Sequence to fold (125 residues):
Amino acid sequence: MGEVEDQVVAAARDRADALASGDGERLRSLLHRDFGWISHLGEEFDRERYISSNVGGSLTWNAQTLTDVQVVVVGDTAVLRCVVMDHVDAGRGEESFRMPMTQTWVRVTDRWLCLAGHAGPRRTD
Fold:
């Protein structure tokens, strides 16, 4: 990967770390104001609902790991595709889920912000 692709991957890993650490402000700083997400269950989230659902609620993130990462950059837009391993606790003890994930990142004043994402479906392999 080149330097720009590495910057996108670093931003995506920073987003994953913000989830795992429960840092809502850091997470907000990495999401575009027009951010949207579709979960593996088909739920749709805007920026604020995504943050409130993932930080300080009934779901606790322990880690998110990105593997098989591929990034395509066109101008100030990047698409990151990977396989993600989520380690979460929804009140029943830690569970781990593996699934494909796609994120769209846009460069805004020399920073990469996540504009949109989709995860799923969960893999059973």
